[in-house]
Design brief:
- It is built from eight helices and 15 strands.
- With 371 residues, the protein is of the alpha/beta class.
- The chain has two domains: 2-247, Metallo-dependent phosphatases (Purple Acid Phosphatase, chain A, domain 2, 4-Layer Sandwich), CATH 3.60.21; 253-368, no CATH class.
- The protein has a six-stranded mixed beta sheet. A six-stranded mixed beta sheet has the order 5-6-7-8-10-9, with helices on one face.
Length: 371
């Protein structure tokens, strides 16, 4: 039995003030292309089932364009008679009852089984059962749903669990619309052939478990996300579980660091062969405030004529600087990492805490893009 698992497509996401070839926001266009490319791959693979584990849309009230793209691509799966199991993520789940859940529009699709209400759903097929837990705003309700899942297991069939949550990252703050899977219920994973997760944007297996995987996102929702492993997962539920990640082609993100004291030479010496149609980030280091005022972003952009977009970041010598519109300073993260180093008992502890802090800063940046 072959299953394709993908997630976190964030249709409707847009940033950067630049228009693409279709006349819409460049990054919004990129997300639609990535989604379409995965559907193309699914139609070639011809799996028995397709799983999407949340954040189909970037917002609870997506644009008409984002909705029409989803409908068009899912209609292609319907025409190929490939069943899709779809759950809601935190981005598309309304925080109040006044807003109707957007995934309700898929209820009457003949090939789509959708879980979007504030409880789980069980979708039973001939040889396999799918236990679908969407994002639920109440931790108490989540525990009740997990107990219901355990009671409903049929051990004579293949079993797959779908969730949109953080597994194992219990140190994360929960104010940003996510729920952390309870440690006390991790034994449930052993009762499933495969656990399909959404929410984290990098593909990977949850270390302690051989059958628990994040599919990752289809595109990058942050310039700080350097991961190239965007795509989909092919899962074979044979006698032994086989999991293969397949990458799709994305717009390149290219980053350069230039010492502000040798700006012209640094710009001339950059190898620009990878910059065509790429998003380029240039970080100016060792800046004095007086220097920064004299450096116009358009001057730097002129060296990257073939790039899709050029983003300039400025890193100052002096630490305590107020943020200025159009100028991005890295001092908050730097200060925090230095504080961790100074307070850690060992180098190993320092490294571990800094890695966790980096993940937290990444989550905060992603959450702020939704405001």
């Amino acid at each position: 039995m072959k299953i394709i698992h993908f997630s976190d497509t964030h249709l409707g996401f847009s940033d950067l003030d630049v228009v693409g070839k279709s006349g819409i926001n460049l990054r919004e266009e990129d997300f639609y292309r990535a989604f379409s490319d995965i559907i193309d791959a699914i139609l070639k693979e011809k799996p028995d089932f397709v799983l999407h584990t949340g954040d189909l849309f970037h917002r609870p009230s997506p644009t008409n364009r984002a909705i029409s793209v989803a409908l068009e691509q899912f209609n292609r799966l319907r025409a190929a008679k490939i069943p899709l199991i779809l759950i809601a993520g935190n981005h598309e789940t309304p925080k109040t009852k006044a807003l109707a859940p957007i995934l309700k529009i898929f209820e009457n699709f003949e090939n789509i089984s959708v879980a979007y209400k504030q409880h789980g759903e069980i979708f039973r097929f001939k040889d396999i059962d799918f236990f679908a837990l969407p994002h639920i705003n109440s931790q108490e309700q989540t525990l009740k749903e997990l107990e219901r899942v355990e009671e409903a297991l049929d051990l004579n069939k293949k079993r797959v669990l779908l969730m949109h949550c953080s597994v194992g990252a219990h140190y994360l703050m929960q104010e940003f619309g996510e729920w952390v899977y309870p440690k006390a219920k991790e034994y449930l994973f052993g009762m499933f052939d495969y656990v399909a997760l959404g929410h984290w944007h990098g593909f990977g297996r949850v270390r302690k478990f051989q059958n628990v995987y994040y599919a990752g996102s289809s595109e990058r929702t942050s310039s700080s996300d350097r991961r190239a492993n965007k795509g989909y997962v092919v899962v074979n539920l044979n006698d032994n579980l086989e999991v293969k990640h397949c990458q799709i082609n994305l717009r390149s993100f290219v980053e350069f660091e230039i010492d502000a004291n040798s700006l012209d030479r640094g710009l001339r010496e950059i190898d620009k062969k990878e910059c065509k149609e790429a998003i380029v980030q240039v970080t100016l280091k060792n800046l004095e405030i007086s220097q920064s005022i004299e450096i116009d972003n358009s001057y730097i952009e002129s060296f990257f004529e073939n790039a899709a977009y050029v983003k300039v970041k400025r890193e100052f010598k002096e630490r305590k600087q107020k943020s200025i519109e159009g100028v991005e300073s890295l001092t908050l993260e730097s200060y925090f990492y230095e504080h961790i180093k100074s307070q850690s008992a060992t180098q190993e502890e320092s490294k571990r805490l800094i890695e966790r802090a980096k993940e937290l800063f990444f989550e905060i940046e992603e959450s702020s893009s939704d405001s």
